[in-house]
Amino acid sequence: MGELDDFFDYNQWKDACELLEAQINLINRNKHFNTLNLQYFNSLSLEYREEVKSQDFFEKYISNLLFYGLEDVVFNNIYYVPKNRFSYRKMSYNSLVVRLINNAIGLYLYKVSEKFVNEFVNNKDSNISSRYGGKIKYNDNGKISLNKENRNMAYYLKCQEAGRKAGITMPEQEQITFTNFIR
After folding, report:
1. Is 179 within a domain?
2. Helix or strand holding residue 144 (H, E)
3. Which domain holds residue 56?
4. Do 142 and 105 fall into the same domain?
5. Predicted structure pTM score
6. pLDDT, tens digit (0-9, with 9 covering 90-100), for 109-132
7. With contact defined as beta carbons under 8 Å apart, do 55 and 10 qualify?
8. CB distance 68 to 33 below 8 Å
9. pLDDT in tens, 33-85
């Protein structure tokens, strides 16, 4: 059986940690990041998060799969959140290490499929992307970089803020009437 460092190295582990820190910083600005899991990560001390981010921790526990023995550090719990009157959403509450491993594997998969995705899937020119994670890419130095869509979204948000300060309001939204076919 292979080890995790067959799939990703410390640089991707560090990128996964930085991605999580960016998500934690968005808790107060974006409701999609204001989850129980991210609130928990935010409550962990910065020293602990830095320790988990360290190369020493990666080499000692992650790359050789020793994290499986850390029962207090590795866990995944399921909980349910009401969605509306008739349904609920199944959510997963992960430990910090599980979340970072998930992020690192996701970044690894993205990195190996980036050429295919950029050449064949994203071969259209759009101004603003509406995908959940935004569009990230690795530059030639192996670092995550923002592309045109991310910069355009940042520009749009700055324009929106300038418009609010100038007293320009958003157009009134049409009232949507939901129908319920359950009687």
Report:
1. no
2. strand 144-146
3. 4-115
4. no
5. 0.59
6. 888 887 776 666 655 544 444 444
7. yes
8. no
9. 888 888 889 999 999 999 999 999 888 888 877 776 677 778 888 888 888 88
The verdict on residue 33 lying in a domain is yes
Which tokens is 100 given?
């970072």
39 and 95 belong to one structural domain: yes
Please tell me whether residues 51 and 106 are part of one structural domain: yes
Residue 57 · residue 10 · CB < 8 Å: no
Q: Structural domain tally of the chain?
A: 2
End-to-end CA distance of the chain: 55
Torsion of the alpha carbons at 92, 93, 95 and 96, rounded to the nearest 10: 90
* Same domain, residue pair 13 and 94: yes
Give the DSSP per-residue string, 54-102: SHHHIIIIITTTGGGG-TTT--EEEEEEEEETTEEEEEEEE-HHHHHHH
pLDDT, greater one: 64 or 30: 30
Q: 96 and 48 in one domain?
A: yes
Q: Is the dihedral of CA 137, 20, 53, 69 positive or negative?
A: negative
Same domain membership, residue 137 and residue 53: no
Tokens of 136: 């990230």
Query: Does residue 177 lie within any of the structural domains?
Result: no
Indicate the pairing of strand 136-138 with strand 87-94: unpaired
